[in-house]
């Protein structure tokens, strides 16, 4: 099911790069292009030629307008959330719209040595961060919570494996929507690990696929 309303293209002042594409773009389209340009010559957020704060600013500066991203926001109430591909960033990243079902969320997971920026496009999302279970730890024990925070519409969060692992949850009664930039796109290629909150044991998920790509359901 699609969440929201049909996208409406709104005219605006185009950059030289955008004009060269001869395409009318709304502010969300321009954000997608700006993120791609910022990551173009690099291999990820840890590269010397990429400014994490600049990428964060790009996402913060975009004020969510459902008409602009609605075509990517395909939800499924039978799932905790759906992953909808928006752009692959010239192979340097994945930009996804995630649609979170009411009262559901993700398992505790890592990011496959990639980095993630998350912007809330609609609703509220609760992020709980946990300490990584110690390597070689044989004793099963509950995972340690580091922090918990509720992110509201237009707020941006940054997450990477050196900060721990996390889960994201929609505690609301309606669908929530978020925009995620992953770089490098390791999870799409090699999967990620999920963790048992009570024991700390992890298992590998090989295929973190997409529910839709470029506005078309797969």
TrEMBL record:
It comes from the Eukaryota. Its EC number is 1.13.11.20. It is an enzyme of class 1 (oxidoreductase). Keywords: Dioxygenase, Iron, Metal-binding, Oxidoreductase. InterPro entries: CDO_1, RmlC-like_jellyroll, RmlC_Cupin_sf. Binds 1 Fe cation per subunit. Pfam families: CDO_I (PF05995). Belongs to the cysteine dioxygenase family. This is Cysteine dioxygenase. It catalyses: L-cysteine + O2 = 3-sulfino-L-alanine + H(+). SUPFAM superfamilies: RmlC-like cupins. The keyword Metal-binding applies. Its cofactor is Fe cation.
